[in-house]
Design brief:
alpha+beta, 153 residues, two-stranded antiparallel ribbon, DNA-binding
Length: 153
DNA sequence: GCCAACGTTGGC
DNA sequence: GCCAACGTTGGC
């Protein structure tokens, strides 16, 4: 079982919305590295730290879980005029893939980026590496557990 | 809103 | 294949 961190701008898709809807396909990823993680490495049952980015208080705000065995083509790439349209992708030869995740829990108290940066044992997280912008990134088991316990003060 | 860091595109 | 220009991400 692997652990991941997925970023979302709360304006565009928040943990509250995931809680309400229960599940969501992680569409709109247009970065090859992030896609490859979803396509090759994410497995059903993997744990996902749900992170709010580009907001007043960036933070890990909850927990989700991968609920598809396999990634599926991201059809939003075929929607002409859509936000995620990519003319290079087609139903015959899809380029972009997505997994589905389901809501597990919303942390009563989010673990803020500030706190994460303050913890030496989390200094290896990709999230805090300078210039790291991956929206889907692997997290070690240890990092995952530290975040979880930090959320349960 | 600013801007550093990064990925992608396209001319050569 | 190089690299400048451009667009995007995301913290602040």
């Amino acid at each position: 079982m692997n652990c991941w961190l997925m970023k979302s701008e709360p304006e565009s898709f928040s943990i509250e919305r995931l809680e309400k809807e229960g599940k969501t396909f992680w569409d709109g990823v247009r970065n090859y590295q992030a896609r490859n993680f979803m396509m090759n490495d994410m497995k059903k049952g993997d744990k996902v730290l749900f992170y709010h980015s580009n907001t007043a208080e960036p933070a890990v705000v909850g927990l989700a879980e991968v609920c598809t065995e396999k990634s599926v083509p991201d059809h939003t790439a075929w929607e002409k005029g859509g936000k995620y349209y990519d003319p290079k992708s087609s139903p015959e030869r899809p380029i972009w893939f997505m997994t589905e995740i389901k809501f597990v829990e919303k942390f009563p108290i989010p673990v803020t980026l500030k706190e994460i940066k303050a913890m030496p044992e989390l200094s290896g997280m990709k999230l805090v590496q300078k210039g790291q912008r991956l929206s889907v990134q692997p997290v070690t088991k240890q990092e995952f557990n530290i975040i979880l316990s930090a959320a349960q003060h």
